[in-house]
Amino acid sequence: MSVFPSVSSFSPSPLRSAIVTRLRAAGCVFAEDEAELLISAARTPSDLDAMVDRRVAGLPLEHVVGWAEFCGLRISVGPGVFVPRPRTAFLVERAAAVAPRPEGREAVVVDLCCGSGAVGAALVAALGRAELHAADIDPAAVRCARGNIAAAGGRVYEGDLYEPLPAALRGRVDVLVANAPYVPTEAIGLLPPEAREHEPLVALDGGADGLEVQRRVAASAADWLAPGGCLLIETSERQAPLTARTFARGGLVTQIAACDELDATVVIGTRPA
Ligand SMILES: C[S@@+](CC[C@H](N)C(=O)[O-])C[C@H]1O[C@@H](n2cnc3c(N)ncnc32)[C@H](O)[C@@H]1O
User: Which of 223, 266, 259 is nearest to 243 (CA)?
Assistant: First the structure.
């Protein structure tokens, strides 16, 4: 717990409304909520000034305060690390729903392309207990995930997809989740500046059709899944049939799940028992 009082204990409402005005002028749609959050996160008035400046300059709110709320957890998000999106809660929810519950041992969960580790951490919280392994190619993401996943008793590895995972996990994974990058290269320019300018390209760019990383995840999944184990990948509604085809090619029994409320689509594949 911080030894500093939060600024909220001494911020008068004229200051609050000045912040709202600045945020609104900078295009922040939820300026009141953001002002409230910044005021509660800042430890000193000068800290608050600096935070508002960074937000007005276009930094994602989560990078300014250093955390994102995800599935009811507070996930630390360092500079240059992908901010977990609300829609990805559907990936966690589906994974918890289809996860095999092995008798006499914890389920083995792998979060590939883990970024901050939000998905793995939330999935373990939803399952109650699990043996969690997570991996990412980006050293900044790995550092961040280590902080978030240690609390869930998990281990984080750095490298390309399956390459850094312990070989002993082959054929033992009950749930493999991946929110891999799936934006087609030519659509990167259409993303909001917060993503384009403050999240790394490796977290966003899924190659020509957006499926390059997903295809590689699906192709090797059956080697790592236990019989009856599941692979779940977040994708877009438009790309879902193509993502599903890569699962079927990888020998998985495949279904597509969608959530209109979160605008989320997940492809689920099961390794036949
Ligand atoms: C869309 S972000 C998702 C992060 C996190 N799973 C989440 O939902 O918040 C994709 C992540 O995949 C990682 N990544 C991209 N290519 C990778 C690869 N070949 N191997 C491992 N990680 C990769 C990026 O570094 C980034 O952290």
Answer: 266
CATH number at residue 186: 3.40.50.150
The residue nearest atom 14 of ligand 1, judged by CA position, is 113
Looking up tokens 């829609």 gives: 87
Q: Are residues 14 and 129 in the same domain?
A: no
- Ligand 1 binding residues, C-beta < 6 A: 82, 84, 88, 113-116, 118-119, 136-138, 141, 160-161, 179-181, 202-203, 213
Phi and psi at residue 166, in whole multiples of 5°?
-60, 135
| Atom number in ligand 1 closest to CA 114 | 6
Res 15: pLDDT: 86
Residue 69 lies in a domain: no
Structural domain of 124: 81-270
**Strand residue runs (E) in 10-126:** 67-70, 73-76, 108-112
Among protein residues, the one with the nearest Cα to ligand 1's atom 6 is: 114
Cα-flanking dihedrals φ and ψ of residue 136, to 5°?
Answer: -155, 155
Residues lower than pLDDT 70 in the chain: 1-12
Residue nearest to atom 16 of ligand 1 (CA): 202
Can you give the pLDDT at residue 13? 77
Q: What is the pLDDT of residue 155?
A: 97
What CA–CA distances, in Å, run from 102 to 65, 130, 163, 170, 228? Answer: 39, 10, 26, 17, 10
pTM, two decimals, is: 0.94
